[in-house]
Amino acid sequence: MKKIISLRLGQGNFQSGFSQILLKLYAGEELLEEIDTGSLPPNEEIEKTYQKWQCLYEAFIGTGGGFLDGDFDSASIGFKPRILEFAEDNIERGSQESAVELTAYMIEIINQWLNSSEFQSIDQALRTNINTKDEVVLVIQTDNDILRKLPWHEWNFFKKYTKAEVVLSAPKFSLKLKHKSLTAGKVRILAIIGDCTNIDPEIDLNTLRNNREVELEIVSQPSRKQICDRLREKSGWDILFYAGHSKSNAQKGWISINAKTKLEISELNSALEVAIENGLQLAIFNSCQGLGLVPQLEELGISQIIVMREQVQNQVAQEFLAEFIASFSSGKSFYLAIREARSRLKDIEDKYYCASWLPVVCQHWSVKPPTWEELRDPPLAYTSNLLFRKGGVILSGLLLAMVVIGVRSFGLFQSLEFQAFDWLMRMRPNEGVDSRLLIVEATEKDINRLGYPISDGKLAETIERIKQYKPSTIGLLIFRDRPVEPGHQKLLNLLQNDDRLIALCSIKLTDNNPNQPGISSHSRVPESRLGFSNIELDNGVVRRHLLFINPDLNNPCPTSFSFSFQLASKYLNSKGIKPEEIDSDRIKIGETIIQRLQSNTGAYHQLDNRGFQLLLNYRNSEKIAATVSFNDVLENKFNPELIKERIVIIGVVAPISNPTDYFSTPYSKGVLPQMSGVDIQAQMTSQILSAVLDKRPLLWSLSETAEGFWIVIWSLTGSGIAIIFLRNINSFLLFVYTVICISILSLICFVFLLQGTWIPLVSSAISLSISSLSGWLLIKHWSQILTLKILQSRNNT
Q1: Contacting residues for 25 by C-beta, under 8 A, at least 6 apart
Q2: pLDDT tens-digit profile of 56-96?
Q3: How many Å apart are CA 96 and CA 90, to the nearest integer?
Q4: Neighbours of 567 (CB within 10 A)
Q5: Numbers of helices and strands, H then E, in the chain
Q6: How far apart are the C-alpha atoms of 232 and 274, rounded to whole Å?
Q7: DSSP H helical segments within 35-143, as ranges?
Q8: How far apart are CA 331 and CA 338, in angstroms?
Q9: Across 608-747, where does the E strand assignment appear?
Q10: pTM for this one?
Q11: Element holding 374 (H helix, E strand)
């Protein structure tokens, strides 16, 4: 919570001291502490040193060149420059070393004065009631000219409290209630550019022009009437900015509006009162010696006034304005923006002497400065209007989420979701080969040597050689529904009698497709050692794993188990792990529960989920397993350790001789081509083994309700992006924020997929995008309507 310190220094001076100091400490509107016993002792050294510093500062300014201010004619404004002699202190005018010395000395004696015993009750109260993380505003209430000029920000108090800032206030300040200016999404600034001799105002104007949230009106070298006409505009102004020459003494100040005309603020009183009534809240005089302008502005009741206490160099004024506007418009509070701009000036004090001492804020002690957003937002029932618009944007986000969920329920996003799924799958890290598997592949080279189809005798010889090295299981992924001589009887004996050998068949799934009649194995092969090789496709892409199916009677392939399941279960049985059926939708193998794919799982819409299917969680690797060729096995040119206690899959990997056994996978659009049927069966086998033995996650998706809720969340995120731009109708930033959020969504979906959860990406991204765009369009439309209504209302009064 922001703390406000009102420090009222009553009657007194540096010769007699200040005996009537009143402290009031507020947290918001709550009075925490009130002390009227504090005082400050006499200290003529402060006044004398300040005058020395001022004269030395003016000497630097006078010789520096390129300054914001020039000289007025002294006779015309009754101003007599002060010239002090420093011979007694051996301070050489214009010496940088002397200037640094004097500055340090002045800071030292001010802190000694504020550390006096008479002031300790106040100092103690401040440090007791204020936390170092609090935002603090110290309001110095005084009309003493020297007190108002002192660099209060150099008090050691501000070193500890890094979110504190000091402002000045007159003991008597005329505060007026104001309307908000008629702006919709913009901060209206009236920039008065006065006499610019030796000044380049373009840098200041560019600072204001380049802010997308500013509506800038410029009057350059105007007459008094032109200024008054602009100030009286019914649409109102948020900020009055002046750049040009100015001068002041202890009682009053002047601005030079053109080369021939100098004005006192009192000459603009009537027009300024109208501007204040219409919403003017901040006046910035980026010109020299502005403290003399403040009393007249205070009498008018402007909430905040920023001036420069002494002559100011052009570059310093430009740097201050740029940093203040950048910080204030970025969302920092008014006071923190002032402090930040002041700290930036401190960074350049090696070139611009005491630059951070120059900016001064003057205001009524109780005023709460507006935020940049409050200056920017349209008027009339601000809070209720803001809540209405936020509610409207959120409601639109919810409605759009319902539309997306409805469209998704008809499967219209299915193809896009599959593409996103494949993209995320390809992004996963390489997992390497599964060391429990070995593929014995018949390549084109082997086919050329052995012929095609490979004879039963060569298959039997290959199996016999593999058996010598004690594999866990052998899977013959080659159809043998008819003899291929020579050697048929030898192969048949192996298929009938070897319990470690799994044979292949293909189930006839439909009567309507004559190209898929099913393929049998030899009738004498036991059903318990048969596995079907059927693969389910999604528009030609393998994403599913068919584990079990109950074939019709008289089906050429009588088994209910897939080839991959038979291989994996044989391997797991050897380790004492057997599958258990929990219910029709779930089986348990070891500690792993495998759940059946439902008809509307993930992006699937009315999926033909016959049998027991699950999503295929591919092992992302160029090779799923170690491989050796037929010829190498027949000639004993392989490492026997590759076979021992492994699952050995024997198959044909020859795209020319066996082109129909190649399939598209999620990886086919990446660096990898289509995948052979042998590799796909190995992937399926590896999936079961890895899930049971390695706890590698199986792929699953959220329930339809949870997925709908997920889409709603991201639709509301899109609405949130639009709400961020509630007062800043900026289409480019809206696009940037939306892209960032979609990137975050993609990253989240990727991380979840690594853990085995498939979350809808496309429908969520679409929901996010259209809700942010529609919310932005709603805000833009409402802002235009609101502005029109306000203008009509004001014109009718």
Answers
A1: 3, 4, 5, 6, 31, 32, 33, 34, 125, 126, 129, 130
A2: 888 777 665 333 333 433 333 333 332 223 333 333 444 55
A3: 14
A4: 29
A5: 24, 30
A6: 6
A7: 44-64, 74-77, 96-114, 120-129
A8: 13
A9: 612-615, 626-629, 647-652, 662-663, 675-676, 700-701
A10: 0.57
A11: helix 372-376
